[in-house]
Design a protein that fits this description.
The protein is α+β, with helices and mostly antiparallel strands. Helices cover 21% and strands 18% of the residues. Strand 6 and strand 7 form a beta hairpin. The protein starts with a helix and ends in an 11-residue tail after the last strand. The relative contact order is 0.22.
Length: 306
């Protein structure tokens, strides 16, 4: 899913980095507390003209710099809350009589599912099915063992496919399964939450936001996430065009860049497979500054597994 996106970026001179968690926002001591750079794992500092966050809502809530929190744009966003979701993949020993589509389920646990052997070329198989499912709402389940979740899933599948699947494995047999648990995934849609969703253009002159929780016509979904990214890219482009034509625009100061330090205390930290990077709090020693730039002791999060 992500490889074509990476290829598109790299073919045009861009760089896609993974396993390089962003740990702090560096800000300027100017009127709008603009971003001066980012502190990465291993003490690395990088800067840019513009910064776009695509983090889940709970991550950006936690990592919003203190200087930004009193602004109504960020303050309203604090009311949004992510909910746990589990993604499950099950490979069966035979073909199920499913359709080439994404199905919204009547199950109380499996909200949507698809037979990837029909719906995705990479998993195409005329003889065996691979079901991909979203186990949600997952509150009360995300902390349980994979075995318990798998058993509950098979019971639900027996209700959906009574002639083909039995929870005891007497019919179609599960050859293998895999699951990914996300403790805080999409935002919870509650009354009043629409007014809390921020636009892609923030009050910070060089900081923009994307993500399904940001303001766009869809609710929490992949479609909403994609649309938010398009809107954020458009906002950056339009902002830059206006500023290029302005004689009064003064770009924010940039922090001095520095390289990864393999002796840094966090240099060897890594995120295990099927887990998200977890924010940890700590002080930066010997901070790098440029002009009036200063360091905000808050943390960004970057999803390591693009």
């Amino acid at each position: 899913l992500c490889e074509p996106l990476k290829q598109y970026i790299t073919e045009r001179g861009g760089v896609v980095r993974t396993n390089a968690p962003v740990k702090r926002i560096l800000t300027n001591d100017d009127e709008g507390n603009s971003v001066s750079g980012l502190l990465l794992q291993g003490g690395e500092v990088m800067n840019a003209d513009y910064y776009v966050s695509a983090m889940p809502v709970d991550a950006i809530k936690k990592l919003t710099p203190d200087e930004w929190r009193d602004d109504s744009y960020f303050k309203k966003m604090m009311g949004l809350k992510g909910v746990p979701v589990i993604n499950i993949h099950i490979w069966f020993d035979r073909k199920l009589s499913t359709v080439d589509n994404l199905i919204f389920s009547r199950s109380k646990l499996l909200s949507v599912y698809a037979d990837m052997s029909e719906a995705c070329a990479e998993y195409a198989d005329p003889n065996r099915s691979m079901l991909e499912m979203v186990f949600a709402p997952a509150k009360g389940w995300v902390g349980k063992s994979d075995e318990e979740i798998f058993a509950a899933t098979m019971e639900e599948l027996e209700c959906l496919f009574p002639e083909e699947i039995a929870a005891d494995g007497s019919k179609a047999k599960a050859v293998k399964y895999s699951m990914v648990k996300t403790a805080t995934s999409v935002y919870e849609t509650l009354p009043g939450c629409e007014a809390m969703r921020p636009s892609q253009t923030s009050p910070i002159s060089n900081f923009f936001m994307a993500g399904d929780f940001t303001k766009q016509k869809y609710l929490a979904s992949m479609e909403g996430a994609i649309l938010s990214g398009q809107l954020a890219a458009k906002a950056v482009a339009q902002t830059n065009l206006v500023r290029e034509k302005s004689a009064d625009w003064v770009p924010p100061l940039k922090a001095d860049e520095r390289q990864f330090n393999e002796n840094s205390p966090d240099a060897k930290d890594f995120t295990p497979d099927k887990q998200l990077y977890r924010v940890t709090v700590g002080k930066l020693e010997e901070p790098s500054q440029s002009g009036s730039a200063k360091i905000i002791l808050d943390f960004f999060q970057q999803i390591a597994n693009v």
